[in-house]
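agent> fetching stored inputs for the adenosine-3',5'-cyclic-monophosphate docking request
agent> found them:
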Amino acid sequence: TIERTLILVKPDGVRRGLSGEILRRVEAKGYTLAAVELVHATPDQLATHYAEHEGKPFYAPLVDFMLSGPTLAVIAEGDGVIAGFRSLAGATDPTAAAPGTIRGDLGRDWGLKVQQNLVHGSDSPESAEREIGIWFPQS
Ligand code: CMP
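agent> prediction call returned; pasting tokens
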């Protein structure tokens, strides 16, 4: 069955001009882009999106980072797209992420308090629907 996932090109990816390269990889894999929007996140959106990380040491730097510039919000579709995009993205830590993945090829440690790891991808169908509601509230 066709799934949907929420992908974010985080502010580091937009700032570095990697949006096109990242979307190219999603499309080259065979997934379909159903919606793409440049969003300047609000504190409310981020508090909801990152609710599970509240209280962790990297939470405040993470929110500051996500407020530092626009994010490209994307809905991608296809069979297996949720797991498939996470596989394309690679490990959370860009230093450890395997070459061939978005984070492994394009990301690195910049010596900051938060891992600037270029992209986010939903981790389950439930997260995908919840997160699509946060980033595409009109849909
Ligand atoms: P993501 O998995 O999309 O959502 C949570 C984000 O928090 C994660 O990407 C990283 O950007 C950041 N993050 C997760 N773990 C750490 C950590 N240990 N230190 C700093 N930042 C982190």
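agent> quick read of the result: The pocket of adenosine-3',5'-cyclic-monophosphate is lined by residues 53, 58, 62, 92, 114-115, 117, 120 (CB under 6 Å).
agent> awaiting further instructions
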